Amino acid sequence: MSGLEPVVALALACNVFQVIGVARETIHIVKQVYRYGDLDPALTDHATRLDDLSKQIQTAMMPTTPAAATTTATPMMTASTTARGAAQGAAQQGAAQPRPTVRDTQLLGLANRCLKAARALREEVKFLKDPATKSRLVVVLKSATTVWRQRRLDKLGKDMLDAEQLLQTGLLARIFEQIEKADGGLEKLDSDLRSFVDENRAGRSEVAELVRAEAAQTRKNVTIQIKGGIHAVKRHTTQDTARAETSLKKHITEAARSADEREQDARLEARRERLLRSLKFDRMNERRNMVEKSHGKTYQWVLRDGSDAGELADVAESPKADADYPWDSFSDWLRSTEPEYWISGKPGSGTTTLVKYLLGHPQTRRFLELWSPGAVLVSHFFWRPGTQMQQSIRGLFCSLLHQLLEEDKASLDRILSSSINASHKDMETDWSNQELQSTLLDVMAHYPRSMALFLDGLDEVLRTEGTLALLNVVDTLKRPQGLHGKVKLCLGARREPLIEEKLRSCPQLRLEHLSYNDLRRYAEDTIIIPPQYPIFISPGSKLYARNAKGHHVFFSFEKPPNPCEIRDWLVTELVGRADGVFLWLRLTAKIVMEALHASETVTDLQCRVDSLPSGLIELYEDMWARANVDSERPEHQERAALYFHLAINQIDNDRLGLTIATTTGMANRIRYCDPYKPGFAASLVESCKAKMRDIEIRCAGLLRINPIPERSNVSLLQPWYGKEYCDLIPYAEEDIDMDPPPFEFVHRTARDFLTDTEEGSRILRKYKISEWHLRQRFAAARLACCRLLRIAPTVKYFHRESVKWTTSPEEYSSLSLRLAEITSLLDLLPEGDEENAIGKCDELLQFCEQLFESGQLFRDLRLPGDGDNFQGEGPESDDLRTWYEVVVKREHEFLLEAASINLNIWPFICAKVQSLELDKQTLSELLLHVCTIAIEYQDDYFWLQDQWEGLRSMREERKRGSHHLGIDSRLKLARLLLKRGACPSLKGPRRTGILDRHIGTDLVYVLETPLKGLISSVWRLDRDTTKMDSNLARHFIDLIRLLMSNGANPNGEEFRVTYQVEDGHLFERPLYFVDGPRKTSMQFVQAYPLSVILARMLQSWKDRFPGIDTFLEAEDTIQDGARLGRLILMLHFGGTPARMCIVEAEEELEEELLWVAREAKGILQAEDRGSYGVPVPPKIQQGLSRALERRHPEGVEASQTSQWYVEVYLRAGMTSMYWGDLEGGTVVISSALLGN
């Protein structure tokens, strides 16, 4: 580095002085943080200032030319001064640079020390401001790490003090030297000081004495110079501060605007994801994903340029591709304005495979670009063997909408802004068919790009909807709102009469007429003569055949064929017989290859080929007959029929569960086994492999076994009993959205053979197990899996402000799901076998209890407080409870948990109560659960029965009555509990909400009596008058009367009812919180005495059901229902800002709020209160808004209202075991019911 120019040295010294000052102040603030535990907002500013000053010091120290060096800007110098110094330095500097002086070296050393100190302090500030440190600051301040950091701060403070003292001395000496060397500088000094300069130049040793003798004079001159410098610096600093203040204000304004924009972007993205999620149904892409990739080098002809005949040489060589079978060039169609193209073919000819090939080929998109640059390509595959959504027009609407909106955010935002309803949809069941169709047409009409729609399997549409309805939809999609030329449709369908009538005039191809060369290529790649195959033709026998060119040849004992000739003969024969049906060729090629490996003679091989059926149905019959010709054991065919039944009904299960369910006694063996027994885990793996082999053999090739998918991510499944069970995990995993099932039909025609032909029906009749008993086996299998394996959440993000994680859809360890499955069995007991079936269900419930008591099934999970360790290390321990806090079990905890889930297992609970000695608290808590009827649970769990087609009608029939509520069993159990000593007036903890079975939500409890729990349940059920009949009402009255006759009093509790302003009307609506109400709305919660609500409900039943005894006249404790309610809460969400006000009892209400109370009384007494609405005048609405604003003028962002929810819950008598842990953070709240 060259010697420092005067101006550069002065700038560097000034910067070092500033670093020292800021550093010492920062050290002081950090020490205060460690002492008191409160973060100072100034820390961030100090860290930024230190960073800026460090950069300036580094710039001043860079080895640059003097001119460059002197241009370093500092807060201590004006720009003009710096420029003059740079110019003078450049003029005076020669080619050779002087060496740095001692004082230069000293000054640079001090600068380096300041840089190191600044780095250390910036790291300290970063450590304190880190979110992970902030969230657990109290713990951090007590750790050993803090002691080390405080010692480091003390050392930094001492270093800065020493540097300041040394720099002051060095700087004064440096200023003296600059004055000495400056032109004209000596004339300003007196004679004594000039003498000192002369002596100093001569190097005399008496300099020290001279300095002491002239100290006073030196200080005087230095003071004058410093004052002048200070004045200039102050002037510069004032200007610089003004500029910095202006810049800072601008930066703060932009930062605030940026934060608002980020918040708005986050909310918008959440709304986008919610809308897209509502359109995506289960297994939406399954059909496309399970279609096998086309064989190598097949279908290449379809995308070749039709304008060049030479490109189609391979097609022209086919004997089928002649003038009798013309086809329209697909590549020409892609580039043209023609709207439709029809791909047809025989069953099994490969049309679906061709459509998938076209969708994935880059040439398809290149041709579409010539038609319309930027065109978007979307698809949908109908599938008859699939779910209802996979077969339906509704599924088509959802699939196309999801793809189009996902591809274009502008269209997605337009739908969100133009449709209020679209913003509040969570799943596909929230959409009506009409909404889906109109939304799809609207999106297509306004879409910024052209669209190419590939729709396959039009003939596989749901039978109840029909092909004609689908073809009419296709016509509508072709020209949305008359916008011609914007949409192309490639349609894959068989040549059924209706389809042919509609599509005969559009461009098309028939695949079976054009696939000869593709079939031959597949056959040549598949049929390989084994090296050891014996070529032998009996004497006197002749084999007549055709070769690849169609010429007839013959072989004999004297003229045997070589392996190439045998292969050529087999390929030619099979391809010719296939008649364009690829599936027929694939199945027969497999048969022939098995015969070759079995060393069949050429003569026998010829007989086998000649006897092959020409059609697929006949081929399936032949395959079944050949597979069972040697089987004398009927259980083999029974097992095959069972596997066919599972494939037809698409019973979702993994390979392990399937193996356990279809192997007699295996679930019980796992239940009672010693899991640590050597070799037990390996035997289970071998059982799974053997089951897959058995399916393949017994089903004669009509079912194919899918390989276990390779997974790139870590499995969520983990063993309970050691690492030897890890080999079992791949057999227990299944992602129903991404993975193919363990086995499936080789083709839709194989399923049709079993369901639509007499021979197929005869095969299926060999299936001896009833559907109910098979479902019971699968329920037992899932419990057995729970004993072997567990599933754990994977932490994505964890700190006190937010907790997010994911779980597997199966939730192996969920007690709620397992009990729901057993409940669905109890609801649908097989006629004539009820007693045996109930015994099976009792065994399952006892298995559940065993797993619950051993900690392998549980209801409530939460992450431990030490989330950082969980995220860093992962759940590697064999004991799941190392990583999860499980609710501490009380005595008889399983009984209470089973009752609280509120499913129809009351006979089992009743039997347990009879066999146990229970304390009063347990009996009273059970009574509360008996009287709480969670209607939402009942409807939500019926999906478990939808997988079993044979039981759906029975389920719907029983769902219409009171059977699924278990009222008779509840009454019987309530009498038993009261007889044993349950207290009907004792308040107990009851869960509120419908989502609390899911991991990731706080479980919200409310303390209430059984009578209030019963009335709350019935009030919600009675809101929909179609769900209540006279028989159900009588049962409820009996239960209410039973409670009151044993001491329950309806006058001791409040009952909350919510009213909502919606579309200009006031309605009664339940108020659920899912991190806040879902809709933009103004809501008012009124509190009534419980007796008022009971009187209103009984009077309504008396009016609706003549002859019913409501005991109103005989009961003095029931008050008149004409009282006004008391307003306790007002809310307004969806606006900016959101507002929520708790109204105190003594508070004086505005006239508009009194209007709500009066009208609410009328709604309360209305016959159809669920749909009855009162118009709200505009002036009243404005007054209501003003009343809210007066009580909560500042409002709050809707995303920051979690703590408000907690306060409201607490005021309503609710609580959660988790709220105390989240001090000042966001509470993860379940969908808790606040107002009925």
Automatic annotation (TrEMBL):
Positions of region (Disordered): 79-102
Keyword Transferase set for record: no
Domain Nephrocystin 3-like N-terminal: start-end pairs: 329-472
Name the UniProt record assigns to this protein: Nephrocystin 3-like N-terminal domain-containing protein
InterPro entries per record: NPHP3-like_N (IPR056884), P-loop_NTPase (IPR027417)
Alphabetic keyword roster: Repeat
One Pfam assignment: NPHP3_N
Gene3D superfamilies registered for this protein in UniProt: P-loop containing nucleotide triphosphate hydrolases
Compositional bias ranges of the Low complexity kind: 79-97
